[in-house]
Write a structure and sequence with these properties.
alpha/beta; 424 residues; single chain; globular; Rossmann fold; 2 domains; 12 strands; 16 helices
Length: 424
C-alpha cells in the first residue's frame, strides 16, 4: 500500500508519525513522510525518506510558549496577546499554504493519509479532495469528551471543548478556505474536528489509557474509530547514553529534568534554581537539553547537563522525572515506574499533570511561576515513598512501545484496506 504520513510540530509532536511510518515501512509498504524542514534530518535518522512540510516549526513553538506564558501570568496584557494571536494566524496561513501544496503533490493514489494533531487541517482537506481515507494520531484526548477535569461536569466539558474547536476555526477560517479553494473544495461548513469525524476517519489515541480510563467507555459508540494504542516512542539509543549511565552509577539515582523541544527562556537561571533546589534536598540532577541551548550554564558538582538521551534506558535509573508535560515524556515516566513533576506551559500539559495527581504518581506546577521554594516543595512531595510505590505499581497498566506501534500499524493497515476495497 502507498501510505502518506504528514506531521507537524516539534520533535515530540512528530515522533508518533515517525514511529508508525518506520513500522509500516518495515512491513513492506510504500511510505511517504512529510515533516517540518527542521525535522527532516530527524525522520531520516529513523530510516525514513522525508520531504519538507510547511515552515520550520521552531518559531511557532516559541511563539506558543511566549503566548501561553503571557496569558497565564499577565492576562490583562490584551494588546500583546492580540499581537501574538495575529502572528500565529499569519504563520498558520502561510504554513498551511505550503503544507497543502506539498501534500497534494504526493497524495494522489494513496491508500491512506496519516496526520498528526497539530495543523491537521491541510491533511484533512487534501484527503477530502482526493477522497483518501484519513487517519489521525492523537497524543492527547483532544476531541470533545466528558473526562477533561474531574471537577467539571461531563456535559460542560464537552460543550467547552466544542466551543474551543469553533473559536479556533473562526480564527483561521479565512486562511483555510483559501487553501480549500485552491484544491477545488467548497468553503468549510464546520470546524475540522467535526468534518474529520463525519468523514469516518480513524482517530488513533496514541497516549496511555491509564491517564484517561473512562474515555474507552465514553467513545465506545464510535465503533472502533477511536482506538487506544498507547504512547508511540522511538526508544532509539543515543551517543550520550553510556556516559550518562556511568555518571548515574557513581552515586545515588538523580532527578531528571527535561523541557522538551521548545526552548526555555532563561536556561542559566533555570539550571541555577535546579542546582539550588536539589542541593537543599540532597539530590543530584540530570538535565536534558532538548531544544534549549545550555552552553552558557555554569558547572555544578551535583548537576550534569546532557543533550538527547534514550528515556527508555535512562528514566528507570532515575529517582524522579521533572518535565514539560509532553505526552511522550510522561508515558516514558509511567513506563519507568518513577514519580513525575510536570512544569507546564502549553494548554494540554496541565491536564496530564492533573491525571498524575489523580493517580498519585506525580503533580504539576506552572513553569512561568515556579520558584526555588515551590520547586523544593513539589520535589519533596514526589520523592515520598508513597509516590515511588504507586508509580512502580502503575507500570503494569501501561503499554510497551512495541505493543503500541504494532497496534497503531495494524489499525492503519486494516482501515486503509477496508476503505479502499479488497484490491488494495
Amino acid at each position: 500500500m502507498k501510505l502518506v504520513l504528514a506531521s507537524y510540530g516539534g520533535r515530540g509532536d512528530v515522533e508518533p508519525a515517525v514511529v508508525v511510518g518506520r513500522e509500516l515501512l518495515r512491513r513492506g509498504h510504500d511510505v511517504r513522510m512529510a515533516v517540518p524542514p527542521n525535522l527532516v534530518g530527524f525522520a531520516n535518522s529513523a530510516g525514513l525518506e522525508a520531504m519538507p512540510y510547511g515552515l520550520d516549526s521552531g518559531p511557532i513553538l516559541d511563539l506558543q510558549r511566549r503566548y501561553f506564558s503571557c496569558y497565564s501570568r499577565t492576562p490583562w496584557k490584551l494588546g500583546q496577546l492580540r499581537r501574538m494571536s495575529r502572528e500565529t494566524e499569519q504563520f498558520a496561513t502561510l504554513c498551511w499554504q505550503q503544507m497543502t501544496t506539498a501534500l497534494a503533490a504526493v497524495a494522489g493514489g494513496a491508500d491512506a493519509v496519516v496526520t498528526g494533531l497539530i495543523f491537521e487541517q491541510p491533511a484533512a482537506n487534501v484527503a477530502e479532495r482526493f477522497d483518501i481515507p484519513l487517519v489521525t494520531l492523537h497524543y492527547f484526548p483532544v476531541r470533545p469528551h466528558g473526562q477533561l477535569l474531574p471537577f467539571v461536569p461531563a456535559a460542560l466539558s464537552r460543550a467547552g471543548m466544542r466551543l474551543n474547536d469553533w473559536l479556533a476555526w473562526r480564527g483561521t477560517r479565512r486562511g483555510e478556505d483559501a487553501q480549500r479553494r485552491e484544491l477545488g473544495l467548497p468553503a468549510a461548513a464546520a470546524p475540522a474536528p467535526r468534518r474529520i469525524a463525519e468523514r469516518g476517519s480513524l482517530e488513533i489515541q496514541a497516549y496511555e489509557q491509564v491517564c484517561f480510563p473512562d474515555l474507552c467507555s465514553e467513545w465506545a459508540g464510535w465503533n472502533g474509530f477511536r482506538p487506544f494504542v498507547g504512547a508511540l516512542a522511538l526508544e532509539a539509543p543515543t551517543a550520550a547514553d553510556e556516559q550518562v549511565a556511568e555518571w548515574i552509577a557513581q552515586d545515588a539515582p538523580p532527578i531528571f529534568f527535561g523541557f522538551g523541544s521548545v526552548p526555555i527562556g532563561s536556561p542559566v537561571e533555570t539550571v541555577a534554581m535546579i542546582a539550588s533546589a536539589t542541593a537543599r534536598l540532597g539530590q543530584r540532577a540530570l538535565v536534558g537539553a532538548g531544544g534549549t541551548d545550555f552552553s552558557d550554564v555554569p558547572c555544578y558538582d551535583h548537576v550534569k547537563v546532557v543533550g538527547q538521551v534514550n528515556y527508555a534506558t535512562i528514566f528507570p535509573a532515575c529517582r524522579a522525572v521533572v518535565h514539560h508535560g509532553g505526552s511522550g515524556t510522561l508515558a516514558a515516566g509511567l513506563r519507568a515506574g518513577v514519580p513525575q513533576l510536570v512544569l507546564w506551559t502549553l494548554p494540554d500539559q496541565p491536564f496530564f499533570a492533573a491525571q498524575l495527581r489523580r493517580l498519585r504518581v506525580g503533580t504539576g506546577l506552572r513553569f512561568s511561576t515556579i520558584t526555588e521554594k515551590s520547586l523544593v516543595t513539589a520535589l519533596h512531595r514526589i520523592l515520598d515513598d508513597r509516590y515511588r510505590r504507586a508509580a512502580h505499581q502503575l507500570m503494569s497498566r501501561t503499554t510497551t512501545p512495541a505493543q503500541s506501534v504494532a497496534a497503531a500499524a495494524d489499525h492503519v493497515e486494516a482501515f486503509a484496506r477496508r476503505r479502499r476495497g479488497p484490491a488494495a
